[in-house]
Structures are given as structure tokens and as C-alpha cells.
């Protein structure tokens, strides 16, 4: 009996060795599957978006005071975005933000699902908020996110602009901070409540050329100013 048991134990041990490799491969697939832009909701059922980069960084369009609302006035930069890190977690991924909040995007029979926890809450406890998670694709996914743009006014510092998948746009420079945006072929066009108009072609990396028209001026007239801009990425760990 002992002579028979030894090979069986050896076979069991050999069968167990590939498990770490299988887990690593599954995590890689999971990572690839969740990379991109997602539409989620906050505790007040307001939509926001989060971009999950392949390197594990995350940037959301919700800030320190939650999701900005249409008609907002005089917003600050930190009210337009939040940064964090994401990684495989259970049957999905978890995003931990710098302000202490966490979102999980999990796969289930009904498709991707969102769980959220407030700062200080156990991530093993029931979530404080949950709802359907939707992954964006195509030109919409390319455009949605947070940008840093030099304003038309030469005496103003670089400002933050956020674009949400529901068509709302916000900035941190105008007293009337809101607006709406649309895709015009490959370009984003933002019509601000203040009367300004902004157009640019989104880029994942590198500087963009941003064309800006003052109130009362519109294409095809020449823009009031052409300024640099770039997509905001989360800080490196």
C-alpha cells in the first residue's frame, strides 16, 4: 500500500503546482477585461465616470464634494476629479481612491455590478451603495474623462475640465461652471453656460490643441485663442 501511495501523492503535488500560474493568468485576463472607462453612480444616484488605466491608475469625474450638478457655479479643481488605484478583487476589481472611498466592479449573472464603501467602512461589510456598472466603448470612451487646459485668458492659470458620459461638462474657471458637450466626428465640442465654446480632439497621451471661442463668436470664424491641453492621469504610485 505504501508503494502505491507515494506515486499518488507525487501526482497530487504535480497537479497542484500549476495553480499559481493559472491564478496569475486569470488575473491578467481580469485586468485586461476591466481596463477602460466605466459609468457608475454615487450614493445620491448621480452618474459619474471612472477611467481605469492599464498601469493600475484610476481617475474619476467625482470630486471631494461628490458629483457636480448641472448649474453648478465656481467649482474648484478638486471638485471635478478624484485619483486612485485599482486591482483584481474577487470576481472583479476594486478601486481605492485617495479620499478613502472605494468602488468595486464585479461580474455576475446580470452583468457588471458596482459596490461602493465610504471611508472607514469595512470592505467586507455590505456596501453603502450599489448599482449597475456600464463599460463605455468607442469614441465616447475616448472622450470621457478629466483634462487640464490653458484658458484663453493669458492671465489665468491652467484649469480643470471634466466630461461625463451623460453629456455634462464642468470647468474650474468660470462663475457658471457647467455646460454640455457632444462629439463632432473626431472632435469634442463643449458649449459652456457662460457663452464660451471649446473644441479639441482627445488624445490618450501628449499635448492636444484646444481651440476656444469667446461669447458671441462661433465656428467657422477663427477661434479667439488656441491653447494646449492634456488628459489628466492619476499620479504614479
Short description:
The protein is of the alpha+beta class and 237 residues long. Helix content is 16%, strand content 38%.
Describe what you observe in this structure.
It is a single chain. The model is unreliable at 1-16 (pLDDT under 50). The protein is of the alpha+beta class and 237 residues long. The strands form 2 sheets. A 9-stranded antiparallel sheet has the order 8-7-6-5-4-3-2-1-9. Helix content is 16%, strand content 38%. It starts with a helix and ends in a 6-residue tail after the last strand.
Helix/strand layout:
Layout: H1 2-16, H2 19-34, E1 36-41, E2 47-52, E3 57-60, E4 82-89, E5 92-97, E6 102-106, E7 113-117, E8 129-132, E9 134-135, H3 138-143, E10 145-149, E11 159-163, E12 168-171, E13 178-184, E14 187-192, E15 197-200, E16 208-213, E17 225-231
Antiparallel strand pairs: 1-2, 1-9, 2-3, 3-4, 4-5, 5-6, 6-7, 7-8, 10-11, 10-17, 11-12, 12-13, 13-14, 14-15, 15-16, 16-17
Segments where pLDDT lies below 50 for 5+ residues?
1-16
Count the helices. How many? 3
Strand-pairing-aware structural class: alpha+beta
Overall radius of gyration: 22 Å
Distance between the termini: 56 Å
The arrangement of helices and strands along the chain is HHEEEEEEEEEHEEEEEEEE
Quantity of strands, as a count: 17
Principal-axis shape: elongated
Order of the strands making up the biggest sheet: 8-7-6-5-4-3-2-1-9
**Overall pLDDT level:** 89
Amino acid at each position: 500500500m505504501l508503494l502505491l501511495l507515494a506515486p499518488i501523492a507525487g501526482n497530487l503535488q504535480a497537479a497542484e503546482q500549476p495553480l499559481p500560474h493559472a491564478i496569475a493568468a486569470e488575473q491578467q485576463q481580469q485586468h485586461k477585461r476591466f481596463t477602460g472607462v466605466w459609468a457608475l453612480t454615487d450614493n445620491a444616484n448621480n452618474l459619474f465616470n471612472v477611467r481605469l488605466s492599464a498601469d493600475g491608475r484610476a481617475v474619476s469625474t467625482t470630486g471631494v464634494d461628490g458629483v457636480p450638478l448641472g448649474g453648478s457655479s465656481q467649482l474648484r479643481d478638486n471638485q471635478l476629479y478624484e485619483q486612485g488605484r485599482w486591482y483584481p478583487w474577487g470576481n472583479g476589481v476594486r478601486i481605492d481612491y485617495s479620499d478613502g472611498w472605494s468602488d468595486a466592479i464585479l461580474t455576475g449573472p446580470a452583468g457588471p455590478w458596482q459596490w461602493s464603501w465610504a471611508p472607514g467602512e469595512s470592505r467586507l461589510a455590505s456596501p453603502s451603495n450599489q448599482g449597475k456598472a456600464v463599460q463605455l466603448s468607442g469614441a465616447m470612451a475616448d472622450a470621457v474623462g478629466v483634462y487640464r487646459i490653458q484658458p484663453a485668458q493669458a492671465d489665468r492659470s491652467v484649469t480643470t475640465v471634466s466630461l461625463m458620459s451623460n453629456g455634462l461638462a464642468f470647468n474650474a474657471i468660470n462663475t457658471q461652471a457647467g455646460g454640455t458637450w457632444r462629439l463632432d466626428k473626431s472632435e469634442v465640442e463643449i458649449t459652456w453656460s457662460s457663452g464660451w465654446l471649446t473644441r479639441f480632439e482627445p488624445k490618450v497621451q501628449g499635448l492636444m490643441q484646444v481651440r476656444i471661442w469667446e461669447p458671441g463668436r462661433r465656428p467657422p470664424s477663427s477661434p479667439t485663442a488656441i491653447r494646449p491641453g492634456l488628459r489628466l492621469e492619476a499620479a504614479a504610485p
